[in-house]
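Worked Example 4.2. Consider the chain below.
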Amino acid sequence: MPEFFDILKELSSIPSPTGSEKTFAEKIAAIAKPFADEVRFDALGNLIVRKVGIGKKLMLCAHMDTIGMLATYADDKGFIRFGPLGGLDTSALYNIPVTFVNGVEGVVSVDTKVPAKDRKTSNFYIDIGAESKEDALKKVPIGTPAYFKGEARKLGEFKVSAPYLDNRAGVILLLMLISALPETDYDLHFVFSVQEEVGLRGAKVAAFDIEPDFALAIDVTDTGDLPETDIIMDVKLGHGCAVKIMDRSVICHPKITSALQECAEKSGIPYQNEIMTDGGTDAGAIHLSGGGVISGGISIPTRYIHTPCEVCDLRDIDSAYKLLRAAIEKNIFF
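Applying the procedure from the previous section yields the following structure tokens:
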């Protein structure tokens, strides 16, 4: 699916650590605008792209923000301490390159005097090559976000790797849908949400604003196909997109789950059933909005989530796109 990879390469160069999504959101808005009836930003920074229809409101949500680091302190030698933006996995932070949003480059390392089993985010620091505290703070003021540095790469024929497939994958899927969908019976609201990684905040605001009849969160999910993994779940790369049944934030409405499963089976689209015991998605906030929203999710199986080298399979992207498009065009939510 070359279109997906081409867009991924373009978007991978634009940072969007949680709380600093504006530049990325403006790029998404520019791509979507020629195909939309309405493009707007709400007070929190969510981007809402609408394709007007006469039917019920369907909200499709993919978060724009990514995990990252926020500069909190510089010591006398010029090393910068940081706090987490979202769920940082400390095992993935050893001697990796990062970039601050103002362009300053750095390398993350750790206080080795602390045993590996006891290391927390507070034991890590970023080396930007500064000579002193004053030098460091001139280059990186307190409160400056940083993000994983890396680029999109092909791994073999079908797999791709990039720092932030969570959730560039979902964002790109929605962009592909916006550009390709003909008129439908649904009043479609494509939401590119902010601050998902710190508590599903953007989706909560957007759902309250839109008041959808139905909603789907488009995000990534863990896989259970690695050797000696501690993630026990029946989802594998290359076996199709995942229809969400449950995660820690939501038990999906059976009406949504069964409709997606039936649509996939009738359309010959490969899919897997997802039960993710750790982590949540924007569906967790959406389904509790107002008087409640009938909600579900379609997920992209992804290895090494919240690391600089996440991996997904283009065949799963393809099946997710086909399922989303078929579900909308066949009006399966009623």
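The chain is about 25% helix and 30% strand. The two ends are 31 Å apart (CA to CA). Compare this with Example 4.1 before moving on.
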